[in-house]
Every structure is written in C-alpha cells, then in structure tokens.
Design goal:
single chain, alpha/beta, UDP-n-acetylglucosamine1-carboxyvinyl-transferase, Chain, 14 helices, 31% helix, binds uridine-diphosphate-2(N-acetylglucosaminyl) butyric acid
C-alpha cells in the first residue's frame, strides 16, 4: 500500500513553480495524432496520466523521445493502428480524446470507454452527438466505442446541450480536418480549450473563437509538424498551492501561472481575508489570520472551477462563521467531507450542497483520497491539522500533480511517502 503521512501543523512559506496543465496536455498529446510527422512539446507535466497517455500512443505506433521530464518529441508518421484497448483507456478520463483525433485520420476507430475520477455520472452523449453530426457512425458496445466514417467528416453546426470541456475539445479535434466549416455553440471556455486551439492553429489548423461561446473551425486538408509548443501552466495546480498558502496562514509566491486564469480563485481568497498580489506570471498569497467564511458556487469557466472546491473547502472548514459550497457540475463530489469530519470538521453535505460550520482546529486522522482534487484537499487539511494525517489511495493524487511532495516540502511542509512491502 502507498500512503502519504502529513505532519502538521505548518505555515507554508517560500516559492513554488507550477507545472504544465494536465487538462491541456491530455488533449494536446492525442491532438498530435492529426499530424503525420513530429511534434515537440514542452512544459508537459510529469504525472501518471501523461505516462498512461504515452503508453497508449506508443501502442498505436507513435515513437516518443523523452527529451527530459517535461519535454517530449512525438513522431506520428508511422501510426498504423486506431484501436486502443479498454485496459489502457479505462485508466483515466481523457482517453476519450483519441476518438476525435483518430477519427480525423482513420476511417475506423475502436476506443475503450474512459475511466477517471468517480464524481458522479460521466456520460459522453455530447461527444457522440458531435461526432454523429460531423457524419461519423458511432456504436457503443462491450466497453468500447466504435466510430467509423465512409467519407471525410463534414463541417456542420453543433449546439451542445450542456457546457462540456471534453465534448468541446473532442469536436474541435474531429472538425480540424473535416470538409468545410463547423460551428460549435454553447461550448466550454476553459484555458485548456484555448491552449488546444492554439496548438492546432500553430500547425496550420483554422480555429477561431476558442475561449468564447462560439467556436468556428474551417477544416484544412492537413496539419504540418511542429518545431516546439509549450503547454500553458496548470490553473488548478496553481490554485491548489494558493489555497494551501491561505489555509496554512502562510506566505507563498506561486510562480509560472497565468494570473488572469486564477481570477475566480483569487476573488474568493480575498473574500476570505487573504492578501493577494499579482505579477506578470506569478501570484503571492499571504494570510495571517483565521479565514472569514464565504460561499462558492461551481460553474464552467470563468466561474469558480469545480476542480478547486475541495481544496478551498479547508478554508471553510477552519473559517470564522458558516460557509457553503454549491456544486453544479458533478453530482457526487462531497465524499471528501466525511474525511474532513474525521479530522474534527463540522460539515453537513446533502445532494449538491455542503454547509461548513467553521471550527478553530482540526486534528490528524487516517483519511482517504477519494479522487484527485479530494486528495489534494487531504494534504492541505493535514498541513493545517494538529498531529499526523495518513492519506491512502494516493494514486489519485499522483495522476495529476507533478512532484507534489517535493513542492510542498520546499515550502516547509513535512510529508512522508510510504510504500509498504505488500505492494512489491
Ligand atoms: N456531460 C454530459 N454529457 C457529456 C459530457 C459531459 O452530460 O457528453 C456533463 C457532465 O456530466 C458534467 C458536465 O457536463 O455534469 C461537465 O462535464 P465536462 O465534459 O466538462 O467534464 P470532463 O470533460 O469529463 C473535464 C476535466 C475535469 C473537470 C471538468 C469540469 C479533463 C480531462 N477533465 O472533465 O477535471 O472537473 O472538465 O471542468 O479535462 C480533474 O482534473 O480533476 C477533473 C476531474
């Protein structure tokens, strides 16, 4: 068994450098399949989701040169297979981007259904609707999605029923090499969507409007190889360290982030009583008192990100007064509140709402990282708690945070990584 043991309490102090964005990288890696040539990617986060993606690409015939921990050269000139097994795809969510990218290149694609954090129902009906509108035939059977086309996909108008990051990205991938113009409406506007569009445009795609409500893609015949592209910094990793600095009443300079992307989080930290100073590519968060409670409603970008609510909940756990979180994206994201209650928090979660009655102190306990962001929240809670917090199921955390222990330790935290023999 693997676990983290966090020794609290501590006040985080110092500087931390943010890695490349997981949710941009997991779309850009499969996007390279649209090029029959090489793509040089920089600022790729060194996390297990990326290693899993590289394994899938290699199984399709990609040749990957690992230039350094954060730099890859992917050569897709000889990709010959469009089949990715359920065994590989079910390890994480973003394997669904293989559908859009491989459909651009092959007539028949077979992709196992995706996995990922258990946050409630995670349908892919909007992805399928987009592929069908573009002219593909889609069958879901035996844990696989079978997608096929008899001629090149055709540009069309797609109005999404829900604002969805994954289906917006997948539709962009599928429409890039389609014949004619595709218009996507009611799309997601997250920074990683803009990054995917920038990456594809830098190779000759014609995508306009990413980051707004309407995206227009004029299909091109082919993309050319890319000398180098640097992935944007991870908004959620940056937010996690900002929340940790505030919750531990610390003083942290978060480097290599885009302050504009951080605005919904910055606004809440200021409401909680933090001092937040923005620079060109860094943010300093300083807190020297107990947080004032506040309310959060999660929304698609530029609203407050659902992927930040567990980490921010530690401020509400320890806040003065009562605060609430209303989760509007995922139906089952409050499992972590049971873990915080084991530590002495006073949280009542019911349906899509959690009510936090602030307590002055929390105390170390054995807790579970139910998912990636819940796991990050457990670390922050451990750093605020008196005594020792043992976190299990940490494979969730390692999926999405590069060198998380090293980064926290550089800010003064004491966290042990323990792997027991029975794992060998
Ligand atoms: N939805 C549908 N049908 C679909 C797709 C989505 O009804 O076909 C619904 C979902 O059930 C959900 C909402 O639409 O209620 C939004 O889902 P979205 O498609 O935006 O989520 P996703 O693409 O599966 C990505 C991130 C998640 C993040 C969400 C929301 C990746 C790989 N994952 O998921 O990130 O929570 O967007 O911002 O980009 C994480 O990084 O920890 C994480 C879970």
């Amino acid at each position: 068994m693997e676990k983290f043991v966090v020794h609290g309490p501590c006040h985080l102090k110092g500087e931390v450098t943010i890695s490349g964005a997981k949710n941009a990288a997991v779309a850009i890696l499969p996007a390279t399949l649209l090029v029959k040539g090489k793509c040089h990617l920089e600022n790729v986060p060194n996390i297990s989701d990326i290693r899993a993606y590289c394994k899938i690409l290699e199984s399709l015939g990609s040749k990957i040169e690992y230039v350094s921990d954060n730099e890859l050269i992917i050569d897709n000139s000889e990709v010959s297979s469009a089949i990715a097994s359920y065994e590989l795809t079910s390890k994480f969510r973003a394997s669904y981007y293989l559908l859009g990218s491989l459909l651009g290149r092959f007539d028949k694609v077979q992709i196992g259904l995706p996995g990922g954090c258990k946050l409630g129902a995670r349908p892919i009906d909007q992805h399928i609707k987009a592929f069908k509108k573009l002219g593909a035939k889609i069958i879901v059977r035996n844990g696989n999605v079978y997608a096929s086309k008899t001629e090149q996909l055709k540009g069309t108008n797609i109005f999404f029923d829900v604002v969805s990051v994954g289906s917006t990205m997948n539709a962009i991938l599928a429409a890039t090499l389609a014949d004619g113009i595709t218009t996507l409406e009611n799309v997601a506007k997250e920074p990683h969507i803009v990054d995917l569009a920038n990456f594809l445009n830098s190779m000759g795609a014609n995508i306009k409007g990413a980051g707004t409500d309407i995206i227009k893609i004029t299909g091109v015949k082919e993309l050319h190889q890319k000398s180098s592209y640097s992935i944007i910094p991870d908004q959620i990793e940056a937010g996690t360290f900002m929340a940790a600095a505030a919750a531990t009443q610390g003083d942290v300079l978060v480097k290599n982030c885009i302050p504009k992307h951080m605005e919904p989080i910055t606004a809440k930290l200021i409401e909680a009583g933090c001092e937040v100073e923005e620079f060109e590519s860094s943010i300093r968060v300083k807190m020297d008192k107990r947080p004032t409670s506040f309310n959060i409603k999660t929304l698609p970008y530029p609203g407050f990100p659902t992927d930040m609510q567990p980490q921010m909940s530690i401020l509400l756990t320890l806040g003065e007064g009562t605060g609430t979180i209303l989760e509007t994206i995922w139906e089952s994201r409050f499992q972590y509140t049971d873990e915080l209650n084991k530590m002495g928090a006073n949280i009542t979660a019911h349906g899509s709402t959690a009510v936090f009655t602030g307590v002055e102190k929390i105390y170390g306990a054995p807790v579970i990282a139910h998912d990636l962001r819940a796991g990050a929240a457990m670390i922050i809670a451990g750093l605020c708690a008196e005594g020792q917090t043992e976190i299990t199921e940490i494979h969730h955390i390692l999926r999405g945070y590069e060198n998380i222990i090293g980064k926290f330790e550089s800010l003064g935290a004491k966290i042990e990584y323990i792997k027991t023999e029975d794992d060998e």
